[in-house]
Amino acid sequence: MGNRVYFNSKKARDMFFRKCLESSNLRTWGQMAKFLKIRRSTLSNYRNGKITLSEVFYTKLSIKLNKEDKEDLYKNISFLEDNWGRIKAGKITYSKYKSIFDKGRKKSIETIYKKAQRFMNIHLNDELAYFIGLFIGDGFTNKYHQYYLIQFIGHKKEKQFYETTFSNYCKKLFQINPKIREEKLGNVIRINLYSVALFNLITKRFQISAGRKSRTVLIPKEILNSDPAIIKSCIRGLYDAEGCVFFDKRVFYKNPYPRIDLHMNNLELLKQVYAILNKFEIKCSLGTTGKNLRVIIYGEDQVKKFVKEIGFSNSKHLERLEKSK
Question: Which residues neighbour 295 within 8 Å (Cβ) at sequence distance 6 or greater?
Fold first, then answer.
């Protein structure tokens, strides 16, 4: 049995099935059901979210999607391990032996509560601020049945970064080993952490809502009100996740002209970043027209100042800067 596919919203699920129908030779939902060799009522349950979609069916349906659609859809789904269904079996067992299970329930609840809250008072240091910044850029969290999932989405070129730097942060801060999964289609990797305590840290202490957050997430007040080093670490994490280093090589520049770009569909977050960079005297511009929502740092002097004051930990940026020397 393969993994199960969870759509992060109804909109994402509807878009997936609509795009799959459009990209295939199938014209009706009935034809799609025949293609998958399932009943139409079962397909309806998949489309309505009553049943989670198997990874096999997901792959079969999405194989003809174009690259852009695949990458957009990857950002709006999550995979859970194939043993998720054992929870249902546990519920049946509990109903049969309720009196036995209830004897230790009170003590178990107290233990579970303590475990679920164990990160709430963790000291806010550079490492934790960096983790939150990275989560703001690439992270997603939600609750599925009894699973509390914290997921990061990156490019396959970043696999080494997540296997080393990111994993070391997780082990040091939370004693958690991330599960890194390379997708069969596209250039996406998913990094999963399962922890109710980490879920509570992100959603309750730092007030970052579960579910889709790209348009609404902000840098938490606790970090904004902290020491400059903490704020810088958070910004470094955000740029490691979503920043882009590039060099304009058009002929009217004597030498390649360096820029650091942060392009996100969240104007309020970009305003925060813009204000913070100016606070540290790093000159930048804020684009706010149409889809041009970005903070750009121009020129060799300002790029060097950013690297000195904020810096990068992600090898994809460090290598690009190294090649320019």
Answer: 261, 262, 270, 273, 274, 277, 284, 285, 286, 287
- List, for residues 249-288, the tens digit of each pLDDT value: 777 777 778 899 999 989 999 999 999 999 999 999 999 8
Residue 217: other Cβ atoms inside 10 A: 20
Q: What is the pLDDT of residues 100-146, one digit of tens each?
A: 555 555 455 455 567 778 889 899 999 999 999 999 998 989 888 77
Per DSSP, the residues of 150-219 read EEEEEEGGGHHHIIIIIHHHHHHHH---PEEEE-SSTTEEEEEEE-HHHHHIIIIIS---SS--TTT---
The CA distance from 107 to 155, in Å, is: 44
Report the run of H or E that residue 92 belongs to, with start and end.
Answer: helix 86-96
Rounded distance, CA 54 to CA 42, Å?
A: 12
Phi/psi of residue 246, nearest 5 degrees: -145, 165
More confident site: 103 or 162: 162
Structural domain tally of the chain? 4
Percent of the chain past pLDDT 70, that is, above it, reads 88
242 and 311 inside one domain: yes
Do 134 and 203 reside in the same domain of the chain? yes
Q: Are residues 110 and 120 in the same domain?
A: no
In a domain, 107, yes or no: yes
User: Residue 290 above 90 pLDDT?
Assistant: no
Q: Which residue has the higher pLDDT, 136 or 45?
A: 136
Residues 252 and 269 in one domain: yes
Q: Which amino acid is at 163?
A: E
User: In the chain, which ranges are E strands?
Assistant: 4-7, 53-54, 77-80, 139-144, 147-155, 179-182, 188-194, 243-248, 257-263, 285-289, 292-298
How far, in Å, CA of 94 to CA of 130, rounded?
42
Chain segment 4-17, per-residue pLDDT in tens: 788 888 888 888 89
The residue type found at 316 is K
